[in-house]
Amino acid sequence: MNPLSAVTGSPAIDPPARSAHAPVPAQPATAADPPDPAQQVRDAAQQLHAFLQQSGHEMKFTVDPASGKTIVRIYNTASGELLQQIPSEVIVRIAAILRAEERGAGVDVHI
């Protein structure tokens, strides 16, 4: 007796035996292609931008020419006030100094 028939009360039906020459059905892809990291970043940025707009804020991206770092600034859209900068001004200045020293410029700048 098949164990399934004891649980369900009906006899289990075995699948028909396959011929040695019968074609094997193609298996569907079980895992989706891995997500594109660049697209994930774009999607997250769009979601963040929409959230900030709804809350009365604006986010701007720039590249600091002295340090080469990407700077993110968040502003109050009503007043234009800078609320947050990532990385901070101090970090940007330190990065610029380190970059200049790497180039052999020997810049002596105090923070």
Give keywords.
111 residues; alpha+beta; three-stranded antiparallel sheet; 3 helices; 17% strand; flat
Describe it for me?
The protein is of the alpha+beta class. It has three helices and three strands, in the order H-H-E-E-E-H. It has helices spanning 3-8, 37-54, 89-102, and strands spanning 57-63, 70-76, 82-86. A three-stranded antiparallel β-sheet has the order 1-2-3. The chain starts with a helix and ends in a 9-residue tail after the last helix.
Shape: flat
Order of neighbouring strands in the sheet with most strands: 1-2-3
Radius of gyration: 31 Å
H/E series: HHEEEH
Instruction: Tell how many strands the DSSP assignment holds.
Output: 3
The helicity comes to: 25-40%
- End-to-end gap: 84 Å
Mean pLDDT over all positions = 77
Strand content: 15-25%
Ordered list of secondary-structure elements with their pairings:
Elements: H1 3-8, H2 37-54, E1 57-63, E2 70-76, E3 82-86, H3 89-102
Antiparallel strand pairs: 1-2, 2-3
Short description:
The chain is an alpha+beta fold. It has helices spanning 3-8, 37-54, 89-102, and strands spanning 57-63, 70-76, 82-86. It has a domain at 57-106.
